[in-house]
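Agenda item 2: zinc ion complex prediction
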Amino acid sequence: MYGAIVVSRDDIEEQNVVKLMERLEAYRKEFKRITGYQWDNNHALYTNYFGKKFAIHIIESSIAVWDDSGKTGLLTVEINGDVVTCEVMDEIEKVTRQWMNGIIHCSACRKEIIYLKHNKNRYFAGVYCNKCWNDKYKAIEAAENYE
Ligand SMILES: [Zn+2]
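Presented output:
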């Protein structure tokens, strides 16, 4: 059995980030109680304007967004202050829409790249442009034993 907390922009924008984290944690505990599902993080799904779902992780200082499988990192955006601003949500919406069109940002330099042409330049959830890959991450990935 699988439970997921699905949040939309309306659930997050202008919310106090600590209170938001507390709410997500309360949901997680309740899901765990009902389902018995071993779920020890507070990952939730974010549904964007187009109803497409993405994995999202909210902490006090930032929000991280992945594709729906959680395998590909799309964005980590800083939260400057107590509240999740409109600008933060605009950035999340922009990046999720770009992903739907096959565009991702290099995990190092943030340049826009075509996902299918770069998805072999991969280190954990990161996907890199050719320059960042060849200059740095290719060697890091080669040395990784994935233990
Ligand atoms: Zn790059």
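Discussion summary: Helices lie at 9-12, 17-35, 86-100, 115-118, 130-143.
Owner for follow-up: CH.
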